[in-house]
Design goal:
The complex is a heterodimer of chains A (about 130) and B (about 140). In chain A, about 35% of the residues lie in helices and about 25% in strands. Chain A contains four helices and seven strands, in the order αβββββαβαβα. Chain A has a five-stranded mixed beta sheet with strand order 5-4-3-6-7. In chain A, a hairpin with a 2-residue loop joins strand 4 and strand 5. Chain B is an alpha/beta fold and about 140 residues long. Chain B has a six-stranded mixed beta sheet, covered by helices on one side. In chain B, helix 2 crosses helix 3. Chain B is elongated. Chain B starts with 17 loop residues before the first helix and ends with a strand. The chains are: A alpha/beta (about 130), B alpha/beta (about 140). Chains A and B meet through helix 1, strand 1, strand 2 and helix 3 of A and helix 1, strand 1, strand 2, strand 3 and strand 7 of B.
């Protein structure tokens, strides 16, 4: 029998390895389950009746993915905020209906929605696009 | 005088781990505080940007429309034809009928025609409250 010749009076302090294990597991859980994208949502509810028929409706149609859209046979570009402000100022209280050609991306649709809101439009509706009219 | 017998020492062998634990705790606290715990979607979706600041809420019917990977309802892959009937089922089984909202998560490059098709199916199911999930536009 191999005995220690000397008697060890001091026990080893509590080891930190299990602590690190637990902390790593917690860290892994939070890393995998946390989301850093600022999620938001937009209301695209469909109107139940033609409640907006008393307001004048301005129809805009998006032609392509670069933001080119058509109003009243004139072409406008989405990025031109000043031009949009003039357009919106001509129809202060009307509902802006946005339509788009079939292959336009959803991102462009929302970009136009945002630009119109920035330009001062109060009622912008996507229902015309989304009902497929 | 306190002499340690040969072969023993009072030094804890785990002292080298303290800086590691410091760093790991810092990372843990960062993730705990800065991230939101959220279940991830069945398919990865890149939502379009928008200035909308209505926070996203929980919805009984979550539709994922991916440009390349099809249509999912509450985590199950479905065909467009079944969408309307499944939504009706969810509506009937749901507890709050008055504010039953449908949430659509669409990719930013999804063609509008596909979004139209999904909206038509929702309309066929008789549901009118629909929300589109977006990402807050970061100032560039």
């Amino acid at each position: 029998m191999r005995l220690n010749g000397t008697h060890q009076k001091r026990r080893q302090a509590i080891s930190l390895t299990p602590l690190i294990d637990v902390v790593f597991i917690l860290l892994l859980f939070f890393m995998l389950s946390s989301s850093f994208v600022p999620w938001r949502q937009i209301n695209i509810s469909m109107p139940t009746a033609s409640s907006s028929s008393n307001n004048e409706m301005v129809k805009l149609e998006i032609l392509d993915n670069n933001g080119l859209f058509l109003f009243d046979s004139h072409a406008y570009v989405l990025s031109n905020l000043a031009g949009l402000k003039l357009l919106v100022a001509r129809f202060p209280d009307s509902v802006f209906l946005i339509k788009a050609k079939a292959d336009v991306e959803t991102g462009v649709l929302l970009a136009l929605l945002d630009q119109l809101t920035l330009a001062g439009a109060k009622n912008v509706s996507l229902s015309a696009t989304l009902k497929g009219q | 005088m306190k002499f340690n017998p040969l072969g023993t020492s009072n030094k804890s062998t785990d002292d080298n781990l303290v800086p590691l634990i410091n760093v790991v705790f810092l990372m843990l606290i960062f993730f705990m505080v800065a991230g939101q715990i959220r279940a991830s979607d069945a398919v990865s979706i890149m939502p379009p940007d928008s200035l909308s600041d209505i926070k996203q809420t929980e919805s009984p019917a979550k539709i994922l429309v991916s440009t390349l990977q099809g249509l999912y309802l509450n985590g199950d892959k479905i065909n467009q034809t079944e969408l309307s009937s499944r939504l009706k089922q969810l509506y009937i089984q749901g507890e709050s009928k008055d504010d039953f909202m449908v949430q659509i998560s669409a990719d930013f490059d999804l063609p509008v025609s596909r979004l139209q098709q999904v909206m038509n199916e929702i309309e066929k199911a008789g549901l009118t409250r629909v929300f589109l999930v977006t990402k807050l536009k970061q100032a560039s």
